[in-house]
């Protein structure tokens, strides 16, 4: 979903290849040949596979600079990598922990985001990554929305973006099989 949002943001031509987890298509030899981990997302760039949300978002932002999905400057880029590493390593992993540990990880994200409108001051790939994980875990966290005010406001801002609306529209029509 995160690369899908970014692809709509940059308005680049692309082809979707939905993978059915119910049919275990991620474990079929043809897919494992592209991503031996058997996980989505996997982006094919002229046939070459690129895996990991953070890397795919970084690649798309750098390849389509006119979309301004990455702030200028080495330090600002490093801040984006920092947030996406936090998202992948701490927030995504919190799913396995569940319950209180899951809520604690997102409470930390809420605190890190604070009063900022966007993670890095202006909209970027870090917002897309953060949003995707909160969108997924929000219904599972069983946390009162008022306990995550920054994430809730960020979620509402993201849901208002046309790239996000379009992504959800397309993915809902295909049907979600979330692991
Ligand atoms: N570190 C990877 C995690 C990818 C990942 O866990 N993908 C999940 C979906 S959110 C998946 O493909 N699960 C299928 C499975 O575990 O069989 C990333 O950030 O891209």
Structure description:
This protein has 179 residues and is mainly alpha-helical. The chain is built from nine helices and two strands. The chain has two domains: 2-65 and 164-174, Glutaredoxin (3-Layer(aba) Sandwich); 70-161, Up-down Bundle (Glutathione S-transferase Yfyf (Class Pi), Chain A, domain 2), CATH 1.20.1050. A two-stranded antiparallel ribbon has the order 1-2. β1 (42-45) and β2 form a beta hairpin. It is globular and about 45 Å long. The two termini are 13 Å apart. Glutathione (GSH) is lined by residues 21, 26, 38-41, 52-53, 88, 92, 179.
Taking the sheet with the most strands, its summary is:
2 strands, antiparallel
- Say how many strands there are: 2
Query: How big is the Rg?
Result: 16 Å
Overall pLDDT level: 95
Small molecules bound: glutathione
The name of the CATH topology of the largest domain is Glutathione S-transferase Yfyf (Class Pi), Chain A, domain 2
Number of domains: 2
Class by SSE composition: mainly alpha
End-to-end separation in angstroms reads: 13 Å
State the order of secondary-structure elements, H for helix, E for strand.
HHEEHHHHHHH
What is the count of helical runs? Answer: 9
Strand order of the largest sheet: 1-2
CATH architecture of the largest domain: Up-down Bundle
Parts with pLDDT < 50 across at least 5 consecutive residues: none
Share of helix, binned: 55-70%
Strand content: under 5%
Write down the CATH class of the largest domain: Mainly Alpha
């Amino acid at each position: 979903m995160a690369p899908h949002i970014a692809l709509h943001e940059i308005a680049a031509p692309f082809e979707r290849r939905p993978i059915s987890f119910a049919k275990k298509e991620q474990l079929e030899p043809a897919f494992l040949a592209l991503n031996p981990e058997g996980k989505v997302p996997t982006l094919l760039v002229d046939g070459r596979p690129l895996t990991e949300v953070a890397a795919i978002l970084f690649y798309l932002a750098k390849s389509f600079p006119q979309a301004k999905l990455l702030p200028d400057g080495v330090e600002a880029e490093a801040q984006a990598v920092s947030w996406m590493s936090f998202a992948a390593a701490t927030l995504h992993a919190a799913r396995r922990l569940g319950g209180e540990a899951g809520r604690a990880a997102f409470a930390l994200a809420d605190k890190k985001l604070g009063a900022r409108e966007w993670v890095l001051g202006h909209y970027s790939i870090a917002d897309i990554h953060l949003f995707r994980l909160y969108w997924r875990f929000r219904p599972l966290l069983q946390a009162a929305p008022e306990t995550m005010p920054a994430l809730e406001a960020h979620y509402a801002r993201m849901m208002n973006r046309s790239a996000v609306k379009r992504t959800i529209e397309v993915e809902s029509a295909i049907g979600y099989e979330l692991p």
